[in-house]
Every structure is written in C-alpha cells, then in structure tokens.
From TrEMBL:
<dbReference type="GO" id="GO:0009307">
    <property type="term" value="P:DNA restriction-modification system"/>
</dbReference>
<dbReference type="InterPro" id="IPR000055">
    <property type="entry name" value="Restrct_endonuc_typeI_TRD"/>
</dbReference>
<keyword id="KW-0238">DNA-binding</keyword>
<dbReference type="Pfam" id="PF01420">
    <property type="entry name" value="Methylase_S"/>
</dbReference>
<dbReference type="InterPro" id="IPR044946">
    <property type="entry name" value="Restrct_endonuc_typeI_TRD_sf"/>
</dbReference>
<keyword id="KW-0680">Restriction system</keyword>
<feature type="domain" description="Type I restriction modification DNA specificity">
    <location>
        <begin position="56"/>
        <end position="155"/>
    </location>
</feature>
<protein>
    <recommendedName>
        <fullName>Type I restriction modification DNA specificity domain-containing protein</fullName>
    </recommendedName>
</protein>
<feature type="domain" description="Type I restriction modification DNA specificity">
    <location>
        <begin position="222"/>
        <end position="350"/>
    </location>
</feature>
<dbReference type="InterPro" id="IPR052021">
    <property type="entry name" value="Type-I_RS_S_subunit"/>
</dbReference>
<comment type="similarity">
    <text>Belongs to the type-I restriction system S methylase family.</text>
</comment>
<dbReference type="GO" id="GO:0003677">
    <property type="term" value="F:DNA binding"/>
</dbReference>
Length: 375
C-alpha cells in the first residue's frame, strides 16, 4: 500500500487567520521530537505569516530536516508553518485516523522522508515523494488493536514525562523558597568573603591535541551540565603547567562569565581531570562558610541571575568580570542549614534519576513496539 493511497495532504489555507477567528499558530520550533502532543504555540495576534490551516485530529509532519522526527496530532485549530505538512486519512474505514501519526513515527517512514529530502543546509522532503512510501496496511481489526497498544504505551511515556516536569518544578520552587528565606533571615556577604579563591581559566591559548585532558569551553557547561562532546584536549604536560597554581576539583563551582550564555553555574561533582578557558570563572568555596552545591544553586537562582544581568557589561560579548562576581551578595545560612538544603536537593535528584530511567525504558519499549507492529 502506498501512503498517498490512504492519506491526503490538506490544502486548507487562510490568508487572514486573525480575521478568520484563528488564535494560535505552530512552527517547527513548537514541535518536540517523539512527542505527539503540541505543548507550545504562538499567538496569531502577535503577527504571523503562516497560512496553512489545521484542525483537531489532523497530523502535523515536519518536512524540513525530517531527521528531527517532528510529528504531532493537533488538538486545537490553528495555522502552521509552510515547513509542516498537514495530513489526514482519506477514508476512516480504510485507515484509522488514530493510526496515522504512529505510521509517521516509524523508522521506515522517517528513513523514506530523509532519503527523499533535497537541499544541503535545510533539506526538505516533498509530498510527491512521501506519497510513494510503501507499507503493509493491517486489516481494520488489527489497526484497532495496534492503536490501543501504542496508545497505552504512549500514555505511560507521557505520564512519566509529566512527573519529571512536575518534580523539576518542585525542585525549582524549593530552591527559590530557600534562597528567599535565607535572604530575609541570614546575614549577607560578598561571594569572595565566603571563598578561598575566585579566579578564571588560562589566558594563554594552549596547544590543543587530538586527545588527552579535556579543555572546557563555555559551551561545554552552558547548558547546566558537562557536555563532554564539546571539549578540546591538551596534553598531560600542558595540563600540569596550566594547573600549576590551582587545580579544579570536586566541590568547586564553574561559572560562565563571558558570552551570550553568561551566568550559568555548575558544581564540579566528578573527579575527572580537566582545565578550562578564561571565559569560565573558577569559584573555590571556603568549606567553613559555603558549600559548593549551595553556591551553584544560588548563582542559578533568580536572585543570582538578577545580579548577573545587572553586572554584565558589553552587548556583543556580555561579560561578568571577576571583580563583579566576587562582589555578588549571597545569603549566608549556617553550614548545617546548607547541608540540610543540599540533602533535600539530593533526595529530589535521586527521585528524578529514577523517573528518567523509567522514561528511557518506556521510550525504548514504545520505539520497539512502534516499529515491531507497523513494519
């Protein structure tokens, strides 16, 4: 069976969505890979040039950069980007509308879409090619069984993902509440007063090697975790020379001080050797006054971000100088209070880790079932 025999490309258009009573628009940036639900959108009232109309129940398929695997089922009406195809079943007695999005999520369909895409910088597939995709269409009773199975698995994936989002919000609220309460009830000191050192990385561009000791760049840590794929490398001899005065260690805090992603703090909670560029600040807490995890959370909190934004200088290359960073005002709870705060965060982190493990397992089961029953 060819895809185009049972699926139709909607040609519905609106030249003036606002006048037609359409309130929301969807771009490729609003679709999440692997998630059939549309969780984000824009307001037509803010201005939009999109004209492709979609209705509840129709399937949105990202034709540009199809390798990103963006497919969703609309649960509201709106207009969407021209880089999104609006698909629907021709005859619900031949192909269940509920099965269509799952077909579009199979490896075989994505492989076909990617294989028929043209363009180097922004490859796009086309409807003529997608319509030629061939697959085995199960009988109607089998389609119903498949929809029930995949729907149940999908609900499990969504349930775990929602639990992760909720717990992440709980963690963020807990941090903000602790920082706010500490600001009101505890003395405040300059960050440098609670640290043994506030410095930065090497100012001399080192000689890089193909492998060796990781050399961190701002982008290595700007997402709030260490991206070990975004490092350079230096030799052991260069590492020894660059860290002769001070060597980063577990419990220290790194801070992106230069560039568009300034103001991100990261606790060193690993023992692997590394060195870093001068655009990253190195904060060494005095263990008698501050715990590294508390410093990290404070700098990433709203109170910390406000100070970052206030102190950043320059527009093309925003910079939080070491002098400004050293003078950041930080509440000083007792060490015991900081330890209790960190213990609660670790408890939340452990729960998040378990949920993320369940999500990985559920996602793997979903992918296996999806390709197993539809290929």
């Amino acid at each position: 069976m060819k895809f185009g025999d049972v699926v139709r490309l909607s040609k519905a258009r609106s030249q003036d969505p606002l006048a037609d009573g359409i309130e929301r628009y969807v771009g490729l940036e609003h679709l999440e890979p692997g998630d059939l639900r549309i969780r984000r959108w824009g307001s037509v009232a803010d201005g939009v040039t999109f004209t492709s109309v979609f209705q509840p129940g129709q399937v949105l398929f990202g034709k540009r950069r199809a390798y990103q695997r963006k497919v969703a089922v609309a649960d509201f009406s709106g207009v969407c980007s021209g880089d999104i195809y609006v698909l629907e079943t021709k005859d619900a007695q031949v192909l269940l509308p509920e099965l269509l999005p799952f077909i579009c999520q199979t490896d075989a369909f994505f492989d076909h879409a990617v294989g028929t895409s043209a363009g180097s910088l922004s490859p796009r597939t086309n409807w003529t090619s997608l319509a030629e995709f061939e697959y085995a269409l199960p009988p109607m009773n089998e389609q119903m069984r498949i929809v029930d199975l995949l729907g149940a698995i999908d609900e499990q994936v969504v349930s775990v993902a929602n639990a992760i989002d909720t717990l992440s919000q709980v963690k963020a609220a807990f941090v903000e509440k602790f920082i706010s309460a500490s600001s009101e009830s505890c003395p405040t000191i300059a960050l440098a007063e609670g640290c043994t050192r506030v410095t930065d990385g090497t100012h001399q561009p080192p000689t890089f090697t193909d492998h060796g000791i990781p050399f961190f760049l701002v982008k290595t840590i700007s997402s709030g975790f260490v991206d070990w794929t975004s490092t350079k490398f230096v030799s052991k001899e260069t590492y020894d020379e660059l860290t002769r005065r001070v060597r980063p260690k577990r419990g220290d805090v790194l801070y992106t001080a230069v560039g568009a992603t300034y103001g991100v703090a990261l606790l060193v909670d690993f023992d692997e050797a590394f060195v870093f560029q001068r655009h990253i600040a190195h904060i060494i807490p005095n263990p008698e006054k501050l715990i590294g995890r508390y410093v990290e959370e404070f700098l990433n909190s709203r109170a910390g971000k406000r100070q970052s934004d206030r102190c950043a200088i320059g527009s093309a290359q925003p910079t939080v100088t070491l002098k400004s960073l050293s003078s950041f005002k930080i509440p000083l709870p007792t060490i015991e209070e900081q330890k209790a705060f960190v213990a609660e965060l670790e408890s939340i982190a452990a729960a998040l880790g378990r949920l993320e493990g369940r999500l990985q397992s559920s996602t793997a089961i979903r992918a296996s079932a999806l390709n197993g029953v539809l290929l």
